[in-house]
Amino acid sequence: MSSKIVLGWREAAALPALGLAAIRAKIDTGARSSALHVDSQWRFVEAGMPWVGFELTPGALGAGRVEARAPVHDERWVTDSGGHRSSRVFIRTVLSLAGIEREIEINLADRRGMRFPMLLGRTAVTGAFTVDPSRSFLHGRIRRRHPRV
């Protein structure tokens, strides 16, 4: 019997250190890394270390824009599902999902036009979770403040 928590192919996640209490996430075990949509990002130096600031709109939740900042963990080339390579900034932050909190690595990307502002790759879910691709939102949905128009 596995003690891993079962996730659906999409879930409501939180990134509390970034001020995101709820964000729609697609769980994608075919992707190695996780990605977070950002509308804009900028670099700066704090205490001699590289940091990144960014703005994002977490979705149609009526929450508006969120501005966050984090130390730059790494910068690497990433190949997206369309085969396009780009250099991306990676940060480390706490993911809260299904009652579990763990630090994960996330790259900041332009996911405009994608249905999910966050993609959780296999390195974020390995060890604690298993995924049932036939199910979704097993750990709660994000309630919209305003209905879709």
Quick synopsis:
By secondary structure, the protein is an all-beta fold.
How does this structure look, described?
The chain contains one helix and twelve strands. By secondary structure, it is an all-beta fold. It has a single domain, classed as Acid Proteases (Cathepsin D, subunit A, domain 1, Beta Barrel), CATH 2.40.70.10. A seven-stranded mixed sheet has the order 2-3-11-4-10-9-8. A three-stranded antiparallel sheet has the order 5-6-7, with no helix packed on it. It has a two-stranded parallel ribbon with strand order 1-12. A hairpin with a 2-residue loop joins strand 5 (40-46) and strand 6. The mean pLDDT is 89. Residues 6-139 form the Retropepsin-like aspartic endopeptidase domain. This is ATP-dependent zinc protease family protein. It comes from Lysobacter antibioticus.
